[in-house]
Design goal:
With about 300 residues, the protein is an alpha/beta fold. Among the domains are: about 80 residues, Orthogonal Bundle (Arc Repressor Mutant, subunit A); about 100 residues, D-Maltodextrin-Binding Protein, domain 2 (3-Layer(aba) Sandwich), CATH 3.40.190. Helices cover about 35% and strands about 25% of the residues. It has ten helices and 13 strands. Strands 3, 4, 5, 6, 7, 10, 11, 12 and 13 form a nine-stranded mixed β-sheet that branches. The chain has a two-stranded antiparallel sheet with strand order 1-2. A two-stranded antiparallel sheet has the order 8-9. A hairpin with a 4-residue loop joins β1 and β2. α1 crosses α2, α1 crosses α4 and α2 packs across α3. The chain starts with a helix and ends in a 10-residue tail after the last helix.
Length: about 300
């Protein structure tokens, strides 16, 4: 196995967060992937992954190495594509599925700018908030949240992290009480995502330890806009995208809670998903490149992850 193959395996392990899934993506046995990573670690003189029976996480060295690795491999793929028919002008029908509310502020400018850059591509865009199977459902690409993907072999690229806010109305607080500590939330009612999509708990980091608060609720929905309206109607506390509630926060119809207590999992990831990294049609590769550049202009450097 040459060094380039090893770099491709490293990239797959990072993106799949699994040695086994990376092995499946490359048609290799898991021990072969493990040995390739071990050789790379020896060459770099740094440990790249923390492995447990349940998860794989990156070391700081791996996070630094990953960005450069992606640049090298992407440049190499582009060079190789230059000698193949994949360099033909992007054309044909491009079928895209996108999460309805998470991408609402991004999708129109993204699609319109892509269409201007690639006029021969016809776009078929489906909006949904349910899980999807890109292959079975016939999509070339997805702009999705992680829960929407029902297969571990899909290639994904993180485009943006959207912060969430813990919000409610002043009227709700006046009728109940204002929580001053995370433990106070146990007596309040929430309007959350359904348990099938997001665990009905909030976890706070207090004095170096995690405090997990179970959420009581009477109304749950997978649509953030619906949840926002229910919160505005006084049905409890919402966990909503910051951008979706900024207007209401600015005019005082909503207020944030417990700003001084850091919470875990208070971000939504928008990911670009596709089914293969190799032999991509020109229209798919063009959209991947365009979306990467587009989102690179709307997120801060600390938010950008490949």
């Amino acid at each position: 196995m040459d060094y380039i193959d090893t770099l491709r395996i490293f990239r797959s392990v990072v993106e799949a967060r699994s040695f086994t899934r990376a092995a499946d993506m490359h048609g290799l046995a898991t021990p072969v992937v493990s040995r390739a990573i071990a050789r790379l670690e020896k060459r770099l003189g740094s440990r790249l992954f923390h492995r447990t029976t349940r998860a794989v996480s990156l070391t700081e060295a791996a996070e630094r190495f990953y960005d450069g690795c992606c640049r090298v491999l992407d440049d190499l793929d582009a060079l190789e594509a230059g000698a193949t028919e994949q360099t033909r002008e992007a054309n044909g029908v491009l079928r895209i599925v996108a999460h309805t509310t998470a991408t609402v502020n991004r999708l129109v400018p993204l699609i319109s700018s892509f269409k201007r850059a690639h006029p021969k591509v016809t776009l078929d865009v489906m909006m949904t908030e349910r899980p999807v199977d890109l292959v079975a459902d016939g999509y070339d690409l997805g702009l999705v949240l992680p829960f929407m993907l029902n297969t571990d072999t899909t290639v994904t690229k993180l485009l943006e992290r959207i912060p969430l806010a813990l919000v409610t109305t002043p009227a709700y607080l006046a009728a109940t009480s204002t929580p001053t500590h995370p433990s106070d939330l146990a007596s309040h009612v929430f309007v959350p995502m359904p348990p099938s999509l997001r665990k009905p708990t909030l976890t706070f980091r207090i004095d170096g330890e995690d405090l997990t608060v179970p959420l009581k609720y009477e109304i749950a929905s997978n649509n953030p806009e619906f949840n926002r309206e229910m919160v505005l109607q006084g049905f409890g506390i919402g966990i909503l995208p910051q951008g979706l509630v900024q207007t209401e926060l600015d005019d005082g119809r909503l207020v944030t809670l417990l700003d001084d207590y850091p919470m875990s999992d208070m971000q939504i990831e928008i990911r670009l998903a596709y089914t293969s990294r190799t032999l991509l049609p020109a229209k798919v590769r063009a959209f991947i490149d365009h979306a990467t550049e587009f989102f690179g202009g709307v997120v801060t450097p600390a938010q950008k992850v490949g």
